[in-house]
Amino acid sequence: MSHPEKSKSPPRPKRRPAWLRVPARSGESYHWLKRLMRSKELHTVCEEANCPNIGECWGHRTATFLILGDTCTRNCRFCDVKTGRPAPADPEEPERVAQAVQAMDLKHAVITSVDRDDLPDGGAEIFAGVIRRIRELQPGCTVEVLIPDFRGEIPPLKIVMDERPDILNHNVETAPSLFRTVQPQCRYEWSLDVLRNAKALWPQAITKSGVMVGLGETADEVLDVMRDLRQVDVDILTIGQYLQPTRDHLPIARYYEPEEFETFRERGYEMGFRWVESAPLVRSSYNAEAQARELSTAHSGRE
Question: Which structural domain range is residue 161 located in?
Fold first, then answer.
């Protein structure tokens, strides 16, 4: 008697390839920066999101500051930042961040945050305060903000854009077909609205967005997302391999080959992006200082 075949689960990707292995975290600069962050009671997305580049970036005294606490109101299934009820926003946080930027003598600072849907403005005023205070304490330092989607609303975005950040970043993260699975409390349209409205509020703005691959999307879907980003005039694009933070997070559907990332990079430039970072270990703030140094020269004024 024959038996029906059991349905087969999708094949698991092979062991992590060599190009995704990174050196251990160590070195004098790494430990100095860790002590500085603790002394200022600050968080970094490098630590909270378990970024694979933390050893390299901290070794060069660069970091992405995580403001508005370390607890997110959303529960995205790719992210290792904890979820729950956050503490109230701290009005003194802009001062502490700016002091850390000054102590590090940064030429470019990257500021991001957890989602704060509990706050009426989504944390926009704290973003604005950080931008202002960095420019007061560290003149000449360019400031990049990686902001939440603010549910696609214009008023909180305007609060940030009125401070004329040197780079306005918001990551779409994945293809629209995967949004409900990957980030169920987000909307693809909200992300595109943020990027579109940033340019509408300040046409000279340099905008940036990022995509993870390996969550189950197709290469054609990645290209479609890239086209959508160009439709809203995004200038800088980052593409990197998704890495599963823990067993509780979404599994890796597949590893993309380095040659595939190179293809995305080439297609991105053909589409008109002004800067494309596309490689397995690329993350949103990877090489951010170089991007700001080259592209901000064409936007020297903030009028």
Answer: 25-299
